[in-house]
Amino acid sequence: ADVVAAEDTRRLRRLTQALGIHTSGRVVSYFEGNESARTPELVEALVGGARVLLVTDAGMPSVSDPGYRLVAAAVEKDIRVTAVPGPSAVLTALALSGLPVDRFCF
What we know:
about 110 residues, alpha/beta, about 40% helix, globular
């Protein structure tokens, strides 16, 4: 990825080191406190052709973790969004839909 947006950059660093993965792209923080401000920057990168990877700490982006604003903005601009699916197809579909998830119940 050209840009890696991580909910917690320290956890991302520990994870990539443990798995022997090198992140070649620019790493930026993307968490609830800066999601509104960071989303336009990431969408601009996507529109410019960059590949943006969103990594959350433990949950599915958009559902339990940051990501809804980014996915919704990408969907609105007809930017292709994909996900590495977790154990639930429903959560993966919801995360990729760009729909509000604040009232979704498991």
